């Protein structure tokens, strides 16, 4: 019985020692492999593994922890794991909120997720800390232009090239009543106008372009409502013709 008790006592002691912080944390942990791997963009998986091992220790210094979080966050973002990258960026910014590089990186991650407002806030915060931050400035400018463009598109979404209040023909009323048809009509007209304004067009080419557009509209107006006529298909076909003429 004494032998059994002694064995149990030794086992319990070993178990206790195995769960102490000293046993869990490696006092000799070295941040160098994690940071060196982070300098190689193609080694995202290796960086994630090395930095993860480093971050599992409570022995690393605060600055090294921040660097490891950012390095792993960047690698996660590159590998498409945006949600996990955001967690690392958040943790790094909690340790030190005044990091323009990290704010810019988190902004890029938010942009990848499609959350443009949060991305813009991070780019702005980065620029507030460092007005000459080139990457944040470029990101802020391109995102602001994107939001402006989206706002303009939203303003005309579902609106055709003509005033629906003055629509008289049945086909025009049908276009006004259908968001997709209205957008198709507006895009067809915009393409036509852009091509017609091209200074490289010869008078003969311009005349041919106008004749084709007039022919499309005449067929649309007269054929709409007849059996077998597909307005949506005809409009898509016309847009495709104009897209080809536009070289895009």
UniProtKB/TrEMBL annotation:
Lysozyme inhibitor LprI-like N-terminal domain ranges (all copies): 164-224
Keywords of this entry: Repeat, Signal, TPR repeat
Keyword Protein biosynthesis: no
Signal sequence extent: 1-18
Protein name: Tetratricopeptide repeat protein
Keyword Signal: yes
Gene source species: Rhodopseudomonas telluris
TPR-type repeats, residues: 66-99, 100-133
């Amino acid at each position: 019985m004494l032998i059994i008790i002694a064995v149990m006592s030794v086992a319990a002691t070993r178990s206790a020692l195995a769960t102490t912080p000293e046993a869990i944390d490696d006092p000799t942990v070295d941040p160098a492999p994690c940071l060196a791997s982070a300098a190689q963009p193609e080694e995202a998986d290796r960086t994630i593994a090395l930095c993860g091992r480093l971050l599992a220790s409570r022995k690393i210094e605060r600055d090294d922890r921040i660097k490891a979080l950012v390095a792993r966050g960047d690698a996660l973002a590159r590998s498409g794991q945006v949600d996990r990258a955001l967690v690392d960026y958040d943790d790094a910014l909690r340790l030190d909120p005044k990091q323009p590089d990290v704010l810019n990186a988190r902004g890029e991650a938010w942009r990848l997720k499609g959350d443009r407002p949060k991305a813009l806030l991070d780019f702005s915060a980065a620029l507030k800390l460092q007005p000459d931050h080139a990457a944040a400035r470029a990101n802020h400018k391109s995102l602001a232009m994107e939001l402006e463009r989206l706002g303009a598109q939203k303003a005309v979404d579902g609106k055709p090239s003509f005033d629906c209040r003055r629509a008289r023909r049945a086909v025009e009323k049908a276009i006004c009543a259908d968001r997709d048809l209205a957008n198709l009509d507006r895009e067809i007209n915009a393409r036509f106008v852009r091509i017609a304004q091209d200074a490289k067009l010869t008078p003969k080419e311009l005349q041919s372009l106008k004749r084709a557009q007039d022919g499309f509209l005449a067929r649309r107006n007269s054929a709409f409502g007849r059996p077998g006529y597909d307005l949506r298909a005809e409009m898509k076909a016309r847009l495709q013709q104009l897209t080809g003429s536009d070289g895009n």
